[in-house]
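Sample entry (287 residues):
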Amino acid sequence: MDRWKKSVLAEIILFFILLSLNKSIILAFISIFLHEISHIIVAKRNGCKFNNFKIHIYGTNAEFINIDELSRKEKIQIYLAGPCMNLAIVCIFFLVGLIINNSIIDKIININLSLMCFNILPAYPLDGSRILEIILSEKILYKKVNDIISKISYMIAIGLIAIALIVFICSKSLNVSLIVAAIMIYLITKSEKKSAMYILMGNIFVKRNKLLRNKYIENKSISVYYKLGLANVMAIIDKNRFNSFYVLDDDLRLLFIMHEDELIEALKLYGNITLEEYFYIRNEALN
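Predicted structure, serialized as tokens:
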């Protein structure tokens, strides 16, 4: 399941949460539709290409091909577009509500406020998690970022269940939607952790496209211990830069330098062997 399909799944969950709070199906649909459309408009303006675009009963589904090739600023703009649209709707109808007293206006404000707050939560697969991921990735390796956001997501899932239980104890009314949302956040977070390695490998192609488009790409060098497995080295790749690894032994002597393209090839050929084992294979092949 790709990231945009996960995002739409989150919108489905939110759709039913909104219905549990407010029975206006049409208003909930329109709010989610505008939320998704705003993502699409900003993405298109930033040069994103679309693989597929569908309109469903619960909103829209746009699959972006090259979003990872955009700059950090452009990606943040795309993920913020949805919540900002909902905030704009809240502000507009709040002002309208000062002039016209109507229950529909109150429903529109409540739905869009809920939609905005839900989506800025830093839990997978919501917009807030993607924004936090982009910000942290500037200073921290992707695998570490994924671990941090996964822990936050699990805590939010537990928090939603706790809220549902507190509401049940106080009012004897069980909010099934909150529990479903918590379960889906948990399951999607679990799938994100499993797919982290595949995402890292896929970023090799993203970086290639960046190089072709911008004619340059930033480099990153890091020293690693020769007893480390190849998969472990893959986990510390910086997804935004071309990585070079200086392989050191116990005495801090440089055994060899491995670039990320060689790392990918070694994983394909030999699996998760250690750098030490690969060093001997490499020397035999050279000799």
